[in-house]
Every structure is written in structure tokens, then in C-alpha cells.
Amino acid sequence: MAWKKALYYGAIAIAILIAVSIIVSIVSALLSLAWTVISAAVSLAILAALIYAVYKIGSWLLGGDGGASADEFGTSRTSTTSKTVDPQEKLRRDYVEGRISEAEFERRIGEELETESLSRDLNLERER
């Protein structure tokens, strides 16, 4: 009877060993899959960053639209955009920044609108 008990406990020990081995294999496979996904995501992020850096450097060197050209390297980008601001926008900005009063703003904007309507009328007469 001692042999039967020993075989019984031995069979149970082997079954437990197999179950633990299966569980460890499943956990290992899941961890391996998670590591693969994380590694791929990090690799893609690094690749995207390198491509972006090459693009920015290339556009800077070639003077493209992506960045400042080599001639503009020390200058401010606002200096190039301030040349194209319309007078009404400049008046609004001066008013918002407190450089002119509300009455002065309304007077100047009225003059600007009158000037625009006069130029439209002149253009319409020229077209006729």
C-alpha cells in the first residue's frame, strides 16, 4: 500500500509540475509579446524622430518652407510677416496692446473703411 501512495503522490507531483510549466510558458509568451510590441513602438518613434530631424535640417539647409533658411538664421520670423499685415489688423493690434485709445481706434478704423470703400468705387468705375 505504501507503493500505491507513493505512486499516487508522484503522479500528483508530476501533474503539478506540468501545470506550473504550462503556466510559466504562457506567462513567458505574454511577456515576450508585450516586449516585442514595446520594442517595435520605441523603434518606430526613434525612426520617426530621425526622419523629422533630417527633414528639418534639410529644409533649413536648402531654405525650404519647413524652417528658416540659412540667410534668415539670425532673424526673427515676425519681421517677415509684419510686412504683410493689413492696416486694419495693425490698428486692432495697437488698440489691444493699449497703444491707442478706443476713440482713436474708432476714428482710424472709420477712415480706413472709408478709404477702402472709395478705392472699391474707383475700381468699379475703372471696370465700366
From TrEMBL:
Transmembrane helix is among the record's keywords: yes
Domain of life: Archaea
Keyword set, alphabetical order: Membrane, Transmembrane, Transmembrane helix
Transmembrane segments: 7-27, 33-55
Protein name: Short C-terminal domain-containing protein
The organism's taxonomic lineage, starting at the top: Archaea, Methanobacteriati, Methanobacteriota, Stenosarchaea group, Halobacteria
